[in-house]
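[Structure tokenization] protein backbone as discrete codes

[Encoding] learned vocabulary of local backbone shapes

[Begin record] amino acids and matching fold tokens:

___
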Amino acid sequence: MADKFCSPKLRLARAKEHLVELETRIKTFFCTEPYPFIIESNPDEIFKLQFTKTLPKFDAIAADVIDNLRSALDQVWYAIGLVSAAVKRGQKAYFPFADNRTKFDAHISGGCKKFPNKIISFVRTLQPYKDGNSLLWALNRECNRNKHDVLCLVWPTIVGRFVHHPEITTPMIVSAPRWDNRKNEIIIQITGEKTRAEYNIKLAFHEAFYEAGIMANEPALTVLHDLAGIVERILMGLEAESRRLGFI
């Protein structure tokens, strides 16, 4: 007997393959340490890391992970629609997302009214809206952004602490390290023109989402692994519920 949930499982598997690829590329890139530490006077002293290599296309791979995870949810929803006769083959059926609980309830009452009550009850526990499971909601948001706007950007962020023992003679501007995409560099700190400081730099990096709403500045690999886990549990839960209901 053919696996009715083969297609969403393939999408999930593909997302995991892209996730492994992204993890490997990030590790390979940073193990070469292509970021000499430099001090630029202008007239303040700017302490920064200037990357000597162009960042690989982490954005595109992360987008592939997100798109496949989102597609897996649509695929499993369509599969359930077919086996339960809630939709006919060729009809459109999308996994229910909404911006808030009110809109979600309205969507369930309208577009999903033919789906079995037990399936709807299971989906309600997932809370796929912003004020419910915000990370699951963000998956849908970023997938739509990848399709219709721009790819979610993945840029390097310093997570290690740098130790310093400055002899401060002028005010010093201390801020969170920030990535400058135009110059391919990370600015660590800006000090006054006559500041004297001795630095012992210790660094660790992760790739972070940039301007991605709830996911912004979060470690990209951690977020994507969490999302893959959420989607996998949803697929397993919906398949198990469909089996209990006798559809498969």
